[in-house]
Amino acid sequence: MKIKTIAQAVAAIGVLLPAQVMAAETTQKVEKIEVTGTNIKRINKETASPVLVMTRDEIKRSGAQTVTEVIQNLTSSGTNGLNELGGGSSFAGGASAASLRSLGSQATLLLLNGRRLANYGFADGAQVTFANLDALPLEVIERVDVLKDGASAIYGSDAIAGVINVITRKDFKGLIASASGGKSTTHNDYDEYNATITAGFGDLAQNKYNAFVNYEYFKRENLFMRERMDEINPTLKRLVPTIGLRSTYSYPGNYIVNGRLQAVGNCPPQLVESGACRYDQWSLYEIVPNSERHTVFGRFNVNFNENLSGFAEASYSRQETMYNSPATYLDDLDSTWYNAQTGDVMTLPGAKLPANHPYNTTGQQVGFRYRFADMGNGTNKVTGDQMRVLAGLSGNFADWDLQGAIGYASSEVEQLRRGGMSLSGWLDAFAKGEYKFGQQNDAAVLAKIFPSLKNTGKSTASFFDIKGSREIAELPAGPLHMAIGIDGRHETYKRVNDDRYNRADIVNYGTSNVNGSRNQYSAFGELIVPVTQALEAQLALRGDKYSNYGHSVTPKVGLRFQVNPKFVLRGTYTEGFRAPNLPETVDGFTSAFAPNVEDPKRCDRANALYEQLKNTDPVRANRLLEDNCSASIGTLIVPNKDLQPEKSKSHTVGFVFEPTPSFSMTFDWYKITRRNEIDTLSNSDILDNEDKNPGSVLRDPLTTQDIADGFTVGQISALRKGWINYAKTKTSGIDIDAKYRLRTETMGRLNFGLEASYLLSYDRSTPGDPEVAKYVGITGYPRLRAVLKTDWDYRNWNTGLRLNFVDDMKAYTSSYNSCKSRGGSDSDCRIASFTTVDGSLSYTGVKNLELSLSVRNLFDRDTPIDYDAWVRDGTTANEMHSIKGRFVKLGAKYTFF
């Protein structure tokens, strides 16, 4: 069993080398420190809560180029987050978000130096608000603390799954510049570049002040599917024969004559295959978008006297991400989508060329498939500007450790899009004969049909906080510590889409318009109670008041029992909540598309017709299946002002074992139950209960052809639904973190470590459905994720190795059944376990210069077959595995003074 393997690995670390060669550990002065997960400064960093700490050196040795890579490499990170790599079709393109325990971005709180950032200017899925990982600086990070239990009582809403606290340097003096560049050696592609400069002056001890500023630049080149087509596993190509095949929606086009495709006469011979003209859409299906980022971070500290100090922080980032896509095409059948403003269903008539059309040489009216290649590729440029400024004071007064700050943060996002077809523009150009098929058309005509579209979003947060802590009594077992505080935020969110989206003039595109604000105020208290010399309790309580729904009170109880100097038992119980956010509750609307919708009233009949027509009229046969068994349906989603908060209960039990100063291990079991999850009814729930909820499913009138085909209801044109408190999720697992530190007199310093997360359960249920969906071992939910790492410092050299393991996974049931029906074996229809090795090397033997080399996926292992990713996302890239192949990065850092 894999959990046994983890235990054996931990034991091996503990006895790896004899204790006789251990050098004496340096005794450090004991002082109180700030610890993530409590508002009280402590002497002992090990609290009742499990906290994973990633140091600056560990981050450097990992080879990560961005904060997003650092976070998503954590074994406790999971699915249901967001990565800007795949954000081209997302409502929140150009950004990345963390998701601890696979509970989603809204359950994971991201902090910078213990305080919140503004949410990204676009909400993901038009609902999920989150802080953008890509806006954070990497070079000035001192450490990253990951609090892996619920923390709503300490930090407030959004901390159901845990907290990621990115902690920067507090001061810096000198001038340092660095640069690095990386490339995938697999196909000599996937280029990434990074450059930083950090400058600081002033000494807090001598000058009573310090100020520093850091600038970072990041650049990544794009990568298209065709460039990686050769490395797709042949088995996957056998299971999905369409992979790599060129599209029949082509330029200069195909006629549909008697149910069969026929290339237009001017199609170049090299593009003709099986009688049809083809278009290489894969050359513009983007796996990795082009990205460019600029980040500035600065901090100022001043000591007014021994009891009072001041601080200020300012940060700004700009991210520009360009997504490319194949040119728009014309379909031969009607396309429908939803007008969220009027409630009407919009229709683009199927492309038909009358017999007398100048581009029709057949002598009869024909259906027509066409790609607007003269338009060029579709583009989606997302630019995000994010900033935060704050200033505060901290000091000691009357034995109180006090701190307070006031600040403002914002995120502004602009999306410039081209490639969507204007319904009015196309119908006008077609009726007037302005567009010339198969030719390079006038720029003004193309602009009328494919206008440039602009969407904007802005999120702001004005905030303040004041807190204090002190010893309030001396109990028989030790001092009683207390912390109290208040904080408040005013948040705004406004998303405005181009009016042509709002009028549903852009064919098959959704829209989202939201505008609102809210206030939130909190009061919190915390006690650290020494019950006995060995037993310590953490008691916390927080009350939050939100203007858009009401209030919540959340408690936390933690126990820490020092069995002996080498062994600590610990456990926590927390209650949490997530307040309904602005996109879910304020004025606005969202229209989107529901993919792969199966119509329970028409699919069976469509299957029967397919069997009858597949040999005589294959085009119509396939279309009947697509339109009735796997259709993309326009959907209207409306806010709900009566939403209640999501609520959670979290438990952790574990221990800390430190038999020697050189070896430590933590073992923690967790269980999180979240209920009242805010979601929409599933498409199947809506369709199964269509007759009970009139108006939830919109259908076209029955046509003459429908009646002749034996259908009793018209085709689905749109779905209507709103946000509701709906689902419940339970998840549990085990986290292990083991470290072994070896100091030798002659061979330098060796570190060994193991991080592992073992998923015991991940279950989701919905009202009225007796079947609980169990996700453990399913795509995106591996049973085990683990990292075994070591590094060695010897004189001017440092080297490190990381072994990364992701357990095997089974495709979702529908994908698995589809895979099996195509002749796949059980192993073909699973995602095999995946192990990679990363290496790093640095040299500091030249004065003021550090040279570094890192290699990700050292042995260039191909990612396993992922049939499910293809079915769900139309790509072979699994979100649990990097598609970089072997990635080599070279870097240099120079210290000027």
Which features would summarize this protein structure in a list?
897 residues; mainly beta; globular; receptor; membrane
Structural features, described:
The chain starts with a helix and ends with a strand. α10 (603-613) packs antiparallel against α11. The chain has 15 helices and 45 strands. The protein is mainly beta. β24 and β25 form a beta hairpin. It has a 22-stranded antiparallel beta barrel. Strands 1-4-5-2-3 form a 5-stranded mixed sheet. Strands 10, 11, 17, 20 and 21 form a 5-stranded antiparallel sheet that branches. The model is unreliable at 9-30 (pLDDT under 50). InterPro entries: Beta-barrel_TonB (IPR000531), Beta-barrel_TonB_sf (IPR036942), Plug_dom (IPR012910), Plug_dom_sf (IPR037066), TonB-dep_rcpt-like (IPR039426). It is found in: Cell outer membrane.
Uncertain regions: pLDDT < 50 for 5+ in a row?
9-30
Number of strands: 45
Task: Report the radius of gyration as a whole number of Å.
Answer: 29 Å
Q: How would you classify the helix and strand content by structural class? A: mainly beta
Oligomer: single chain
Counting DSSP H or I runs of 4 or more residues, the number of helices is 15
Task: Write down the overall mean pLDDT.
Answer: 88
Note the overall shape.
Answer: globular
**Terminal residue distance:** 53 Å
What is the helical fraction, as a range of percent? 10-25%
Beta-strand proportion: over 45%
The largest β sheet comes out as: 22 strands, antiparallel, barrel
Family: Belongs to the TonB-dependent receptor family.
Domain TonB-dependent receptor plug: 45-163
Domain TonB-dependent receptor-like beta-barrel: 347-858
Pfam families: Plug, TonB_dep_Rec_b-barrel
